[in-house]
Write a structure and sequence with these properties.
With 302 residues, the protein is mainly alpha-helical. Among the domains are: 121 residues, no CATH class; 46 residues. A two-stranded antiparallel ribbon has the order 1-2. The longest helix has 64 residues. The termini are far apart. Keywords: Membrane, Transmembrane, Transmembrane helix.
C-alpha cells in the first residue's frame, strides 16, 4: 500500500490552518513522499540488478526565458480563478521549494533555488493581489519589462545607495538636496519604475541626522543640569544649611540656659542666706527679752 500525501492532507483539514503553515506542511509531505519514492525505486533497481537513469519529470517546469510573467510561471491562463491559483501554488511549492528533493536535483546551487522560489512567491503575490501590484509603477509591465522583480531589486539598490550617500555627506541638505535629487531623477534614476514614485519615496525618507543631533543636545543639557548644583552652587545644599542652622540655635539655647541657671541659683542662694540671717536676728531678740522677765520673777518670790 502506497502512502499518498493527499490522504494526510484530508485528514488534517489543512484548510483550517494559516496559509504559511499550509505551505510548510505541503513541502514536508512532498519531500517525504519523494524521498520514499526514490528509495523504493533505487531498491527495486538494486533488486533487479540494474540501475535506471534518473529522469526527473517536472509537471510544472520553471520558464527558461528571462522575465517570465506570473501566469507563465504558474502555467495558468490569464483568467484563472483564485482557487486554481492557490492550488497551483501548492503544487509549485512542492516542486520548487529550496528544501525539496526535486528542486535540489534540478538546481544544485542553493542561491539559484532561493532566487527561483523568491520569484515564485512574488508571482503568487501578484496573482493574489493584482490591484495592489498594478498600482505600483514598474512592478509589472508585460509590454516592456515583464514581471518587474529585477527592476524592483535595482530600485531598492539605488535607493539604499542614495540614502547612505545622503547620511554620510552633509552637502545634501535643504534646497541642495532637493535639486540634487531632481538632477538624478532627470538622469534616469527612476527609469522603468516611474520617476515620480522614486522621487516621492526618496522625499519620504528625509534626513535623519537632525534626530541624532537633537538626542545628543538633550543628553548634554540633562548632564549640565544634573551637575550644575554641585559645580556652580554652594558646597552645602539647602538641607545641610537648615541642619547647621538648627544645630547652632540649639547650642545657643543650651548656652543661655546654663547662664540663666547659674544666675538663678545665685539668686536663690542669696535669698536663703538672707532668710537665715533674719531668723537668727529674731531669735537673738527673743532671748534677750526673756532673760529680764525671769530675773524679775525670781526677785518677787524671794
Amino acid at each position: 500500500m502506497h502512502w499518498h500525501p493527499s490522504l494526510a492532507t484530508g485528514r488534517l483539514n489543512l484548510h483550517l490552518l494559516p496559509s504559511q503553515i499550509q505551505v510548510l506542511v505541503h513541502v514536508r509531505l512532498a519531500s517525504t513522499a519523494n524521498v520514499g519514492a526514490d528509495t523504493s525505486s533505487s531498491a527495486d533497481a538494486e533488486r533487479h540488478g540494474r540501475h535506471k537513469p534518473h529522469h526527473h519529470h517536472v509537471p510544472y517546469p520553471f520558464p527558461t526565458h528571462p522575465n517570465p510573467t506570473p501566469h507563465q510561471i504558474f502555467h495558468l491562463p490569464v483568467g484563472a480563478s483564485q482557487s486554481d491559483i492557490k492550488s497551483r501554488y501548492y503544487d509549485l511549492v512542492r516542486i520548487h521549494h529550496p528544501d525539496s528533493p526535486t528542486c535540489r536535483s534540478l538546481l544544485p546551487s542553493p542561491t539559484a533555488r532561493h532566487e527561483r522560489f523568491q520569484k515564485l512567491t512574488s508571482a503568487y503575490e501578484h496573482l493574489r493581489f493584482p490591484t495592489a501590484h498594478s498600482s505600483r509603477i514598474g512592478r509589472y509591465d508585460s509590454a516592456r519589462h515583464g514581471y518587474g522583480y529585477e527592476e524592483e531589486i535595482e530600485r531598492r539598490r539605488r535607493h539604499q545607495w542614495a540614502r547612505e550617500r545622503n547620511r554620510s555627506s552633509g552637502a545634501w541638505s535643504g534646497a541642495h538636496h532637493y535639486r540634487g535629487w531632481q538632477e538624478q531623477q532627470g538622469r534616469g534614476w527612476g527609469a522603468g519604475l516611474g520617476g515620480a514614485e522614486a522621487y516621492g519615496e526618496w522625499n519620504a525618507t528625509g534626513d535623519d541626522r537632525w534626530k541624532d543631533r537633537v538626542i545628543v543636545a538633550v543628553g548634554l543639557l540633562s548632564l549640565v543640569l544634573g551637575l550644575a548644583p554641585t559645580l556652580f552652587l554652594n558646597p552645602y545644599s539647602y538641607v545641610d544649611q537648615r541642619h547647621l542652622a538648627a544645630a547652632a540655635n540649639l547650642a545657643q539655647a543650651r548656652k543661655e540656659a546654663r547662664e540663666y541657671g547659674m544666675e538663678r541659683r545665685k539668686e536663690i542662694k542669696k535669698r536663703v542666706s538672707d532668710y537665715r540671717r533674719l531668723r537668727e536676728g529674731e531669735e537673738d531678740g527673743d532671748g534677750k527679752e526673756s532673760c529680764p522677765r525671769r530675773e524679775e520673777g525670781s526677785r518677787r518670790h524671794s
